[in-house]
C-alpha cells in the first residue's frame, strides 16, 4: 500500500476490514457447509424481509426465532480461538465444523426457542420457574456469553459476568452498592423468563428494526449507491484546496447516511481518498486521520444512523423522525469541525485541489447513477410519512431489488437468461451478506439484555447515580469556593455539578467504547447514566444523545481507535499518531454534546426550544470549533503568533458556552488576530514539509 496506488483491491479491503473489525472476521467453510450456512442466512433475511412488509409475529416468538437462528449461525461463522481457518471434515468435525460448535449451536437454538414454545404457560412460570426452565436459561446464558466472545472479543462478556456476579453476591458488596442478592434460580428467572432481560427491548429493536436497515444498507451498496456518493463528493469538493481530504469528509457523510459502520466506511472510502490525499502532500498519518474521523460520522448521520437510532425510539417512546431531526445539527457540527481543520491544514501547507482531468463531472455522475438513489428517497419518504421504520425498510429493500433487476437487464441486453442469473445472484449475495453482518450485533444486544436485567433486578443504576452526583456535587462546591474571589459567578454550583457529572460520564463512555461496540456501549451506559443525568434535570433525549456521541468517539480515541488504525493500514502510517490526530479532528463530536446539554435547543425537538437559544448555541459552537481548529493548525488567514494562539484558545472556550456575554467576549478576543491577518487573506502560503 503505497502512494503510487490509486486504490485497494476488493480482497485487500476485505482483509483490512477483518483485521480491525472482529465482527466481520468470518471463518472459511468447506463448500457443502458453506452453501448450507449461506442458505440459512438467506432464509433469515427472507423471513425478516417478509415480516417487515406483512406483519411481525408475537414479540417473544419473533425475538426467540431471530436470536436462536443468529446464535447458531455465530457458532458456524466464528472460530473459538485465533484467526479464522478452515477445518477438515472428519469424525470430530462433521462437514468441517468442530463437534463442539455443533453442540453449542444446537444448545443456543433450542434454548432460545424454548421461551416462545412455553409462552402460553409463561405467566405461571415467572417467579416460580421449573427446573427445566432454569436448565434452559443457563444454557442460553452460557452460549450467549460464548457467542458474543467469539464475535466481539472478551470485554462485553467479562462485563456481563461481573454484573451477574454482582447480582449473586449482592450481600457482600460494600456500602451503598449492597443489596439482598439473588440465587441462581432467581437470576435466571429474571434474565430468561421476563421481558426485562435477554428477551427485552434491546433484542426487540435489533430483530424488528436494525436487521432490516443493515440489509437495506448492504443492498443499497450492492446497486452502487455508495460509489455514486463517492463520485459525487469528488465532483463537488475535489477542486478546492486539499481536495481529496474534502472529498473524504463529504463522501463519508453521504455514505454514512446508509451505513452505520465506522470501519467499513473507513475502508470503503479510504481506499480511494487516502492515496489521493498523500499524493497531493498531506502527511500519511493526517490522511489516515481525516478518513477515520470522517467515517465515524456515519453512525450519527441520518437517516440510518446505525442501530442506536432505533433503540432510542423504543427507550424514549418517540417517532424515528424526532430522533433524525435531533441528530441533524450535531451531525453537521461533526463534519464541519473535520472540514475546517482539513481546510486550514491545506492552506497552511499550500496544498492544491484535484485538477479538472482528475475529477468526474457531477452531472455526468448523477446522470449515470441517478437510479441508485431511488431506494434512499423511498426509504426517507416513507419514514417522513409516519409509517413504521421496518415498513420503510421493506419498501427501501424492495426498491433496491427493483433497481437491481433493471441494472441486470441493462447489463445483459436481450440475454434474458443472463439477466435473470445476474439478478438472482445479486439478491442472493445481498441478502446473505446483510444477514451475516447482523450476527454480532444481535449477540451483543442479547447479552446486553443480561446487563440491563441485572440493573433492573438490583437497582444498581440508581445507586451509581447517587454516588456520581454526590462526588460531582462535592467537586462543584470546592471549585465554587476557590473562585469566590472573582467579582462575578463563572458557573453556579448546580451547573458545575452537571459539568463534572458530564465529564465523568463522557470518560466512562469512551473507556467502555474501547472494548465494546457502539450499540452495546450505548445500551449499558443509558441503563447506568440515564438515572444520573435525569437526577440533574437533563431531558431524556439529550441524555441519550450525549451518551451515544461519546460512545462513537471511542472509534477514534487511542489506545483502541479501530477506525484510525484501519485507515493507518491503508496509508502505511503510524497507527497511534493517526489515532491521536483523528481524535483532534473529531473534537466537534467531543465539544458539541456538552453544548447541547446546557443548550438543548440545538437538538431542535426538545421541550422549551427557542430559536434565539438555537442560533446562539449553534453559531457560537461553530465559531468556537473554527477558533480551536486554527489553534491546532497554527493558521487562521496566515501563520498564528504565540499570543494569538492563546487568545484564540480562550475565545474558543468562551464561544462554545451557550450564553450571550461569554460569546461577546469570545468574539472580542478574536479581533486582534483577525485585524492583523486580514490583509494577508488570499496570499499563497509557503509549502510546509514535515517528517512523517
Description:
The chain folds into three domains: 10-82 and 96-203, no CATH class; 223-384 and 391-431, no CATH class; 456-680, no CATH class. The longest helix has 30 residues, at 320-349. The chain is mainly α. Helix 15 packs parallel to helix 28 and helix 22 (493-513) packs antiparallel against helix 23 (518-535). Helices cover 71% and strands 0% of the residues. Mean pLDDT is 86; it is low at 1-5. It holds the Pfam family DctM.
Question: What is the element layout, followed by pairings?
Answer:
Elements (H helix, E strand, L loop, with lengths): L9 H11 L10 H24 L4 H19 L21 H19 L1 H7 L5 H22 L2 H14 L15 H10 L7 H22 L2 H13 L5 H13 L6 H19 L3 H12 L12 H9 L3 H30 L12 H8 L4 H11 L4 H24 L3 H22 L1 H20 L1 H23 L10 H21 L4 H18 L4 H14 L8 H10 L3 H11 L1 H12 L12 H23 L8 H14 L4 H18 L15
Pfam families: DctM
Keywords: Cell inner membrane, Cell membrane, Membrane, Transmembrane, Transmembrane helix, Transport
InterPro entries: DctM, TRAP_DctM-Dct_fused
Count of DSSP E strands?
A: 0
- The low-confidence runs, each spanning 5 or more residues with pLDDT under 50, are 1-5
Radius of gyration: 26 Å
Number of helices: 30
Based on secondary structure, the structural category is mainly alpha
Q: Which keywords apply here?
A:
about 700 residues; mainly alpha; 30 helices; about 0% strand; membrane; cell inner membrane
Give a brief rundown of this model.
The protein has 692 residues and is mostly helical. The chain is built from 30 helices and no strands. The protein has helices spanning 10-20, 31-54, 59-77, 99-117, 119-125, 131-152, 155-168, 184-193, 201-222, 225-237, 243-255, 262-280, 284-295, 308-316, 320-349, 362-369, 374-384, 389-412, 416-437, 439-458, 460-482, 493-513, 518-535, 540-553, 562-571, 575-585, 587-598, 611-633, 642-655, 660-677.
Amino acid at each position: 500500500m503505497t502512494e503510487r496506488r490509486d486504490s485497494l483491491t476488493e480482497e485487500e479491503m476485505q482483509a483490512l476490514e477483518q483485521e480491525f473489525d472482529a465482527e466481520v472476521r468470518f471463518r472459511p467453510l468447506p463448500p457443502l457447509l458453506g452453501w448450507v450456512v449461506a442458505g440459512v442466512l438467506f432464509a433469515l433475511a427472507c423471513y425478516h424481509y417478509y415480516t417487515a412488509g406483512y406483519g411481525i409475529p408475537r414479540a417473544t416468538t419473533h425475538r426467540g426465532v431471530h436470536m436462536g437462528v443468529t446464535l447458531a449461525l455465530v457458532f458456524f461463522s466464528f472460530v473459538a480461538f485465533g484467526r479464522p481457518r478452515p477445518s477438515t471434515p472428519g469424525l470430530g468435525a462433521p462437514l468441517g465444523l468442530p463437534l463442539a460448535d455443533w453442540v453449542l449451536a444446537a444448545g443456543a437454538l433450542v434454548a432460545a426457542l424454548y421461551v416462545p414454545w412455553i409462552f402460553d404457560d409463561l405467566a405461571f412460570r415467572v417467579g416460580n420457574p421449573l427446573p427445566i426452565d432454569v436448565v434452559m436459561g443457563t444454557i442460553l446464558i452460557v452460549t450467549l456469553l460464548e457467542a458474543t466472545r467469539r464475535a466481539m472479543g472478551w470485554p462485553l462478556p467479562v462485563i456481563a459476568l461481573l454484573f451477574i456476579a454482582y447480582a449473586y453476591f449482592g450481600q457482600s458488596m460494600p456500602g451503598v452498592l449492597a443489596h439482598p442478592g439473588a440465587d441462581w434460580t432467581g437470576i435466571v428467572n429474571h434474565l430468561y423468563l421476563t421481558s426485562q432481560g435477554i428477551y427485552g427491548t434491546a433484542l426487540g429493536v435489533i430483530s424488528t428494526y436494525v436487521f432490516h436497515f443493515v440489509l437495506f444498507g448492504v443492498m443499497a451498496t450492492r446497486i452502487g449507491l455508495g460509489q455514486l456518493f463517492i463520485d459525487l463528493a469528488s465532483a463537488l469538493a475535489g477542486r478546492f484546496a486539499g481536495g481529496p481530504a474534502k472529498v473524504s469528509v463529504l463522501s463519508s457523510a453521504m455514505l454514512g447516511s446508509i451505513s452505520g459502520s465506522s470501519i467499513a466506511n473507513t475502508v470503503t472510502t479510504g481506499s480511494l481518498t487516502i492515496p489521493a490525499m498523500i499524493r497531493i502532500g498531506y502527511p500519511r498519518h493526517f490522511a489516515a486521520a481525516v478518513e477515520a474521523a470522517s467515517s465515524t460520522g456515519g453512525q450519527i448521520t441520518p437517516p440510518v444512523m446505525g442501530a442506536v437510532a432505533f433503540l432510542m425510539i423504543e427507550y424514549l417512546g418517540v417517532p424515528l423522525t424526532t430522533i433524525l431531526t435531533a441528530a441533524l445539527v450535531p451531525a453537521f457540527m461533526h463534519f464541519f469541525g473535520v472540514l475546517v481543520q482539513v481546510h486550514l491544514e491545506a492552506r497552511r501547507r499550500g496544498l492544491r485541489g484535484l485538477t479538472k482531468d482528475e475529477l468526474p463531472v457531477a452531472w455526468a455522475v448523477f446522470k449515470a447513477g441517478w437510479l441508485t438513489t431511488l431506494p434512499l428517497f423511498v426509504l426517507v419518504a416513507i419514514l417522513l410519512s409516519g409509517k413504521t421504520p421496518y415498513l420503510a425498510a421493506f419498501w427501501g429493500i424492495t426498491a433496491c431489488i427493483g433497481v437491481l433487476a433493471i441494472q441486470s437487464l441493462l447489463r445483459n441486453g436481450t440475454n434474458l437468461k443472463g439477466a435473470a442469473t445476474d439478478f438472482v445472484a445479486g439478491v442472493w449475495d445481498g441478502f446473505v451478506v446483510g444477514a451475516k453482518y447482523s450476527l454480532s450485533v444481535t449477540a451483543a444486544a442479547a447479552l446486553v439484555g443480561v446487563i440491563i436485567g441485572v440493573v433492573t433486578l438490583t437497582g444498581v443504576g440508581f445507586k451509581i447515580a447517587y454516588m456520581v452526583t454526590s462526588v460531582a456535587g462535592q467537586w462543584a462546591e470546592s471549585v465554587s469556593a476557590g473562585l469566590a474571589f472573582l467579582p462575578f459567578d463563572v458557573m453556579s454550583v448546580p451547573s458545575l455539578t452537571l459539568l463534572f457529572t458530564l465529564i465523568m460520564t463522557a470518560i466512562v463512555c469512551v473507556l467502555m467504547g474501547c472494548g465494546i461496540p457502539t450499540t452495546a456501549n450505548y445500551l449499558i451506559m443509558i441503563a447506568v447514566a440515564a438515572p444520573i443525568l435525569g437526577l440533574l434535570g437533563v431531558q431524556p433525549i439529550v441524555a441519550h444523545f450525549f451518551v451515544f456521541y461519546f460512545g462513537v468517539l471511542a472509534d477514534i480515541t487511542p489506545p483502541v481507535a479501530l477506525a484510525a488504525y484501519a485507515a493507518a493500514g491503508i496509508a502505511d502510517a503510524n497507527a497511534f499518531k493517526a489515532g491521536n490526530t483523528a481524535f483532534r479532528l473529531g473534537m466537534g463530536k467531543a465539544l458539541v454534546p456538552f453544548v447541547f446539554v446546557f443548550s438543548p435547543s440545538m437538538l431542535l425537538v426538545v421541550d422549551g426550544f427557542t430559536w434565539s437559544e438555537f442560533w446562539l448555541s449553534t453559531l457560537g459552537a461553530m465559531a468556537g470549533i473554527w477558533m480551536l481548529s486554527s489553534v491546532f493548525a497554527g493558521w487562521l488567514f496566515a501563520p498564528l503568533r504565540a499570543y494569538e494562539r492563546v487568545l484564540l484558545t480562550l475565545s474558543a472556550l468562551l464561544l462554545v458556552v451557550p450564553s450571550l456575554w461569554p460569546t461577546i467576549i469570545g468574539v472580542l478576543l478574536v479581533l486582534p488576530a483577525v485585524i492583523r491577518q486580514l490583509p494577508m487573506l488570499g496570499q499563497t502560503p509557503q509549502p510546509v514539509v514535515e517528517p512523517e
